[in-house]
């Protein structure tokens, strides 16, 4: 697989805040990535630097093997749909789409027209008069119809209702199947996008926690359910991500791939295995990372 984005030792500091902490990763061609993490984790900062809309404090980024800054060869092949995208107040969606058609060499006007109808977007209304959902639809349409070789979507669904979000997901996956490209989708609605994404990048406190195939990530944890005493006996010595109990029934999520012997012992103990959603797993991994960081930092704070 061809690598289209390379990031090496990337750091970004805003005065006292460390937004990105020595990040290194690679992103492959023709793959849909989920860039996941909490608010303030560094997702938007990373995408902004990769698209030359922000500057790194240190480190190196390469898109198509080149530095993206002031590089028209690279930037004409990249589309970044920002959560907080700003347009001139007197601009209409029609004006925005015309500008996009001039910039993106693979722009598909017929596809844009289809998406306009799908989202029921009033294209002659001035942008400042649009609702939050309609403004999001403008960005979604540009991101999809641009057919850029690398497309970043930063929380593209804000203000969209459930039907509109599903329309976005459906059109994205349909068009991706016919016109493969690299898509990086930042989202808080992890379970909604879980069926779309092929690879998962999890960022927390400016550091990369995961960069793996989605199927591999799903196999990193399992939830064992049943009699509390039996569950605790089976779990002994394993790394626990989460515990819940109700009366004599316990549900424990453990980290690690299950072997055939593990599955046999679960069945022999009359316990059940429950699926772990991608969202549950990432939330637990992020919480554990935060707790570990706090525990590590605590002695230092006490010395001060």
Your description of this structure?
The protein has about 300 residues and is an alpha/beta fold. The protein contains eleven helices and 13 strands. The strands form three sheets. A six-stranded mixed beta sheet has the order 5-6-7-3-8-9, with helices on both faces. It has a four-stranded antiparallel beta sheet with strand order 11-12-10-13. Helix 4 packs antiparallel against helix 5.
Helix content: 25-40%
Averaged pLDDT: 90
Percentage beta strand: 25-35%
Dominant shape? globular
Tally of helical segments:
11
How would a textbook summarize the main sheet?
Answer: 6 strands, mixed
Number of strands: 13
pLDDT < 50 stretches = 299-304
Quaternary organization: single chain
Gap between N and C termini, in Å?
Answer: 49 Å
Class derived from helix and strand content: alpha/beta
Strand order of the largest sheet: 5-6-7-3-8-9
> What gyration radius follows from the Cα positions, in whole Å?
22 Å
What is the N-to-C succession of helices and strands?
EEEHEHEHHHEHEHEEHEHEEHEH
Give the tags.
single chain, 304 residues, alpha/beta, 6-stranded mixed beta sheet, 4-stranded antiparallel beta sheet, 13 strands, disordered C terminus
What's a quick, concise take on this entry?
This protein is α/β, with parallel strands linked by helices and 304 residues long. 38% of the residues lie in helices and 28% in strands. The longest helix is centred in the C-terminal third of the chain and has 26 residues, at 278-303.
């Amino acid at each position: 697989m061809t690598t289209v984005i390379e990031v090496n030792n990337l750091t970004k500091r805003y005065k006292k805040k460390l937004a990105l902490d020595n990040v290194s990763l690679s992103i492959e061609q023709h793959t849909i990535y989920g860039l996941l993490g909490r608010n303030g984790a560094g997702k938007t900062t990373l995408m902004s630097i990769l698209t030359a809309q922000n500057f790194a404090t240190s480190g190196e980024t390469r898109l198509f093997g080149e530095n993206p800054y002031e590089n028209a060869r690279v930037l004409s092949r990249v589309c970044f749909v920002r959560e907080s995208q700003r347009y001139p107040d007197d601009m209409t969606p029609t004006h925005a789409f015309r500008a996009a058609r001039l910039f993106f060499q693979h722009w598909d006007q017929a596809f844009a027209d289809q998406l306009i109808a799908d989202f029921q977007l009033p294209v002659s209304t001035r942008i400042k008069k649009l609702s939050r959902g309609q403004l999001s639809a403008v960005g979604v349409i540009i991101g999809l119809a641009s057919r850029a070789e690398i497309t970043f979507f930063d929380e593209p669904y804000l203000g969209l209702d459930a039907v509109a979000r599903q329309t976005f997901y459906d059109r994205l996956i349909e068009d991706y199947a016919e016109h493969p490209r690299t898509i990086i989708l930042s989202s808080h609605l992890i379970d909604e996008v879980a069926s779309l994404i092929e690879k998962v990048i999890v960022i927390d406190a400016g550091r990369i926690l995961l960069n793996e195939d989605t199927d591999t990530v799903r196999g990193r944890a399992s939830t064992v359910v049943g009699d509390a005493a039996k569950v605790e006996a089976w779990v002994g010595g394993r790394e626990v991500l989460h515990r819940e109990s109700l009366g004599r029934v316990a549900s424990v999520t453990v980290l690690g791939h299950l072997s055939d012997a593990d599955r046999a012992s679960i069945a022999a103990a009359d316990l059940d295995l429950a699926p772990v959603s991608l969202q549950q797993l990432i939330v637990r991994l992020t919480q554990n990372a935060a707790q570990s960081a706090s525990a590590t930092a605590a002695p230092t704070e006490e010395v001060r």
